[in-house]
Amino acid sequence: MANVSVYNIEGKEVGTIDLNDAVFGVDVNEHLVHMAVVSQLANNRQGTQKAKTRSEVSGGGRKPWRQKGTGHARQGSTRSPQWTGGGVVFAPVPRDYSFKMNKKEKRAALKSALTSRVEEQKFIVIDELKFDEIKTKKFQEVLNNLNVNKALVVLEDDNKNVEISARNIANVKTAHTNTINVFDILKYNTVITTKAGVASIEEVYA
Hints:
Elements: E1 3-7, E2 13-18, H1 21-24, H2 30-44, H3 103-119, E3 123-126, H4 136-145, E4 151-155, H5 160-166, E5 172-176, H6 182-187, E6 190-194, H7 195-205
Parallel strand pairs: 1-3, 3-6, 4-5, 4-6
Antiparallel strand pairs: 1-2
Helix pairs in contact: 2-3, 4-5
């Protein structure tokens, strides 16, 4: 069972916590992790790009000059791709880029990403993260105390003050335990959560 240190908001170690191996100690499956990232990026694509082919560009119905005798190459339409104002060869059309991953695959990929953060010692647990007021400066001080500048902060649902305090800091993103995803875990290379957050993650994904 993995064991990580617990810190307070001053950055001082105040204890340790055991992590559930079913979530934080699995065999890292790089293929599933890669698939989950590609799937998320593909599903976010709008797929609305469009250009006109030669059959869709207006004009060009008349043959620009007769077939023979002009000295020019033969041409059938002024809307062929080689003409200015002509259509596009193999023009892009709207399409759906998304593809589906099974629930078990998604869950395994997420566990692999969390495990990799624990193994790399980039999974930081805080005993408690509560603010009496919304204060960006106070949250930045917490990050400085933990020596972190790019982080995914996983919070409990009722932690609104901390959530809003972190919102305006570059390279920091907040998420709830049921909204974390593989892409964010890898992009924000350090994961910060509380003891309550660890319990919630284990409850949701174990």
